UniProtKB/TrEMBL annotation:
Residues 1-24 form the signal peptide. SUPFAM superfamilies: Galactose-binding domain-like. InterPro entries: FA58C, Galactose-bd-like_sf, TAT_signal. This is F5/8 type C domain-containing protein. Keywords: Signal.
């Protein structure tokens, strides 16, 4: 049944009563999207050859066709082709490519692991859906493909495929630095699944499938700590290292959520073969070693669209059609409520996304249509997964459950904070440096992907100091970072409220998505900016940008555009550069790419263009100049840009081609406002600076100094609040009551920070008539955040307050009477005499705790041995939970860095089982040395004995 118009409006957000589609509608949505996509799929049909094209595996559209032909209610009006015609095209294509596959005796395609086997998987599945309509020869060829591929892949053992060139899984060792082998191992497993599912267990097939599948998300420290078996094989025999120790995946030199999801993308492709064939799923598809911790990293970057945010990937953001299948697999096969929520969120946007130009496509915005056959096939598989395995109910409070603050380390270069209100990240990977922030997890608000700069220029980081705050240990989630550059420092703090605080040494830039995408929340075709100076509406550009600049007329022979800020990826490229009398005149440039010569910007042909040389794309001052032949009066310039549009440039004139005078500049601010700026009612900035915030088209320029970013707040009121007074080189903010501190220097700083109000922070402060003087000690090039644990109403000036932790305060300097209020609302009446007095707030916890094990990752994880409960219960800080080891159970806690460790264990009531504590620096070899990153507790546990309530690790200075 197709979705009616009202359901579509609900699904796409035009009727706010139902911001996302109901779970039962997801499958129907996929069917309708496939129908509409068929208009694109038919462009792949070659009427002369009588089949779909081979280019970019265009013939893989047959899987979507097969679903439409065998399921649902076909609608030729939506599809743009009659059902019988689609059937004819599909069957003819399957017949041809089944015969032309190398494994069936052909020569056109197939057998090559990268990437033919991915499309073989789709192809075999399409043939099986239409099996009764295929002739005997075609059936035989399809069977030969599935069997032959399984035999071929098995024959390779753990070696490389000689047909695939440099693509390799690196045996069973894998790899994780810069370019994970998770994807490559997944391809090896994927090539075996059709044979196993449709033809049973050939010689060595199942063993090979299990080896590659178990090792896809391999991490030795985790795998060696897990004695659980999957398909009868212990996880501890895994050998691959495809993940960083924080369960993050790098691909092509940066964090790639799209590739991190590859574990479940290949699992979805594999599972559907077994489900349709009526065979049991291999256990490894349901019990995936390290899968849940890998998924946690995805949740820590998730957007409101159910697609991960991609701060370090240039060409994978907003490929909605490619991101469905991992969610569909997790929500249907793994019965994951979080994935079910994300899938419904993504599905609710698909029809609106598909209607946006280029219409019908499922993987737009990358500029590469080659992903369309794959997206169509994966959407078809997602439909089938819903048909065969109805999904679990979506989780409520998704972002509260997904909340996580984590430092993935200097090598991956990502410090991330997912809160209930926003996502934020500090990116230090070369080429991607930025302070990224996405308020309300809005997939289409700020541009944070790839090399797009945000708040910081993409400069090389020479020093990185990071602090992560976790609720279980510190009482709140947050981060603080201080980055060093060759010419200075910059800092950022992220707060549990979703607010960010940035200490910027120079102006910061934020680019705003501005599209007209009907049905997509926020993409109405304009963005509204409001500040103290007024309001401006910036309309979306419907096509390539055209700049019309006028200026006082001057006489000149030469006119040029000289760049100031290039497109962050592609530099500069112009279809047209027009000044009075410039068509067809001599045109020169600082550089050009082959086929994009300077003259093509003045030839009058709207389809030709000039572009800078590839090697010059990062150069700011590239130029394009015209020689009018004689001195001419000019007073206007018209520039029609390609995607590589300048963020800023100048128009200059000259009479001799040597001495130039600037006559116009772009951009000219649409709005310049002091203090604060609201962006579309969705988010905003407060700048603690005497310089203004400016809006220039779809770019916001923020002044140097302290900048605070808020999610839907009263910015006018916030901007009027007083700014902390700091020692030189120190910057501070009290955004949302938290005290964020930054030392923007290479020397330690001690001094006093003057604050307004009666909030009390950890450390020593003396009250004044209107606030406090906070005693500051801040090491060189560091930042930190202090929570507002207490306020003191009615406290007089001259009282010293020493906040030891979130429970205990010492006062001196009385006599005085006042009320102490804890952040959680509890109050305490304080009567202070002339003597010092220490008070403890009843019921409060003494945050921060000096316990390095709290909130840390524990092993085993994802797959637990029989009788064992989750070891995370021993580090969750709750007195109500405990780890039950199971017979002879063993657990490991990862401290995150090599430290000197002192361990304390607490058990529940009952006989304490015999146990030992061992230590490891690498997660591979354990012994008695207490300098370690990994701490293991091994037991001789038997039923009736005590469980482990907590493992605490103290005295932990980093080593090395």
């Amino acid at each position: 049944m197709l979705i009616n118009r009202r359901q579509f409006l609900y699904a796409t957000g035009l009727l706010a009563a139902a911001p996302s589609i109901a779970l039962a509608q997801v499958k129907d949505t996929y069917y309708e999207v496939l129908l509409r996509h068929t208009r694109w799929a038919e462009t792949q049909y070659d009427p002369v050859a009588g089949r779909y094209r081979r280019t970019d595996f265009g013939f893989a559209v047959v899987l979507g066709n097969a679903v439409l032909l065998t399921r649902g209610t076909y609608d030729a009006t939506l599809a743009g082709v009659e059902k019988d015609v689609l059937r004819q095209h599909t069957l003819a294509t399957i017949k041809h490519y089944a015969a032309s596959n190398v494994l069936a005796g052909g020569t056109e395609w197939g057998k090559t692991l990268f990437w033919d086997t991915t499309f073989q998987s789709y192809f075999v599945l399409a043939a099986r859906l239409l099996w009764t309509e295929l002739d005997a020869a075609t059936r035989s060829n399809v069977e030969a493909i599935a069997r032959g591929q399984a035999d071929y892949t098995t024959s390779l053992g753990t070696g490389n495929d000689p047909r695939s060139g440099s693509w390799t899984p690196n045996g069973l060792a894998g790899g994780y630095r810069g370019d994970t082998k998770l994807e490559e191992m997944g391809v090896y497993a994927q090539s075996l699944a059709p044979g196993l599912a449709w033809h049973g267990d050939g010689p060595g097939w199942r063993e090979a499938f299990g080896r590659w599948s178990r090792n896809e998300a391999g991490l030795p420290a985790a795998d060696l700590a897990n004695p659980s078996t999957v398909d009868g094989v212990p996880i501890s025999v895994n050998t691959a290292a495809n993940l960083h120790g924080t369960f993050i995946v790098e691909n092509h030199g940066s964090f790639g959520p799209h590739y991190q999801s590859e574990l479940w993308r290949t699992s979805g492709r594999n599972a559907i073969h077994f489900l349709l064939a009526g065979r049991p799923l291999p256990e490894v598809l349901i019990k995936q070693p390290n899968g849940e911790l890998l998924w946690r990293t995805i949740l820590a970057t998730m957007s409101d669209a159910g697609e991960p945010l991609m701060p370090m990937v240039d060409d994978r953001e907003h490929l909605y059609g490619r991101d469905v299948i991992p969610l569909a697999f997790r929500s249907t096969v793994l019965r994951d409520p979080m994935a079910a929520w994300a899938e419904a969120a993504l599905a609710s946007r698909l029809l609106a996304y598909q209607a946006h130009p280029p219409q019908y496509r499922l993987a737009k915005f990358s500029g590469e249509a080659k992903y369309e056959p794959e997206a169509r096939a994966e959407l078809a598989i997602s439909y089938l997964l819903h048909e065969l395995r109805p999904p679990v109910a979506p989780a409520p409070d998704f972002f509260a459950r997904a909340a996580l603050a984590i430092d993935h380390g200097a090598e991956p270069g990502l410090l991330a904070h997912q809160s209930a209100a926003a996502w934020a990240g500090t990116v230090t990977k070369p080429g991607f440096t930025k302070f990224a922030w996405q308020p309300a997890h809005d997939d289409w608000l700020f541009k944070i992907s790839g090399s797009t700069p945000m708040l910081l220029p993409s400069a090389a980081v020479t020093g990185r100091n990071v602090v992560v705050y976790q609720g279980v240990r510190d009482g709140f989630d947050g981060t603080a970072s201080l980055l060093a550059f060759a010419d200075g420092f910059a800092g950022t703090a992220t707060l549990p409220t979703g607010t960010v605080v940035c200490a910027l040494p120079r102006p910061g830039r934020v680019d705003v998505h501005n599209l007209a995408m009907a049905g997509m929340s926020g993409l109405t075709g304009a963005r509204t900016y409001t500040g103290a100076a007024g309001r401006v509406v910036v309309k979306a550009r419907e096509a390539f940008r055209v700049d019309e600049l006028t200026f006082p007329a001057v006489n000149a022979r030469h006119v040029r555009m000289v760049g100031v800020r290039p497109h962050p990826t592609y530099g500069y490229s112009l279809f047209d550069f027009e000044v009075d009398g410039s068509r067809g005149v001599r045109t020169t440039a600082s550089s050009f790419d082959t086929g994009y010569e300077p003259a093509k910007a003045t030839d009058g042909d709207p389809a030709t263009r000039w572009a800078v040389a590839r090697a010059e794309r990062g150069r700011a001052d590239s130029w394009l100049a015209v020689d009018l032949g004689t001195s001419t009066k000019v007073g206007r310039a018209r520039l029609r840009w390609e995607t590589a549009a300048a963020g800023a440039y100048r128009i200059q004139t000259s009479n001799d081609g040597t001495t130039w005078t600037t006559v116009a500049e772009y951009p000219r601010p649409d709005l310049s406002t002091a203090g604060w700026l609201d962006v579309d009612g969705r988010a905003g900035f407060v700048a603690r600076s005497s310089e203004p915030i400016t809006v220039q088209g779809d770019t916001i320029i923020l002044p140097p100094g302290v900048v605070e970013g808020y999610v839907r707040a009263d910015l006018r009121s916030i901007s009027s609040q007083p700014v902390p007074e700091c020692p030189p080189r120190v910057r501070a903010s009290t955004a949302d009551g938290f005290l964020s501190l930054f030392n923007l220097s290479d020397t330690d700083v001690t001094g006093t920070v003057r604050l307004r109000g009666t909030r009390l922070y950890r450390g020593t402060q003396v009250t004044t008539s209107d606030g406090t003087e906070y005693a500051l000690t801040l090491p060189a090039a560091t930042a930190r955040v202090e929570a507002p644990w207490f306020t003191a109403q009615g406290i007089p000036a001259g009282i010293t307050a020493v906040v030891h932790d979130a429970r205990r305060v010492t006062f001196r300097g009385g006599p005085a009477r006042f009320t102490l209020t804890h952040r959680d609302g509890a109050t305490l009446a304080i009567v202070l005499g002339r003597s010092e007095r220490t008070v403890t707030m009843p019921g409060a916890q003494a945050f921060p705790f000096n316990d390095l094990a709290l909130g840390r990752v524990t092993f085993p994880n994802s797959v637990l041995p029989p009788g064992m409960s989750d070891p995370a219960a021993a580090v969750d800080g709750s007195p109500q939970t405990a780890w039950t080891p199971g017979r002879n159970g063993r657990m490991v806690v990862d401290l995150g860095a090599v430290r000197r460790a002192k361990v304390s264990l607490k058990w529940t009531e009952g006989p304490v089982p015999p146990h030992t504590v061992t230590y490891s620096a690498d997660g591979r070899t354990y012994g008695p040395a207490t300098t370690a990153r990994y701490v293991a507790v091994s037991t001789g546990w038997r039923p009736g004995q005590a469980s482990l309530k907590s493992i605490s690790v103290t005295e932990g200075d980093p080593v090395g």
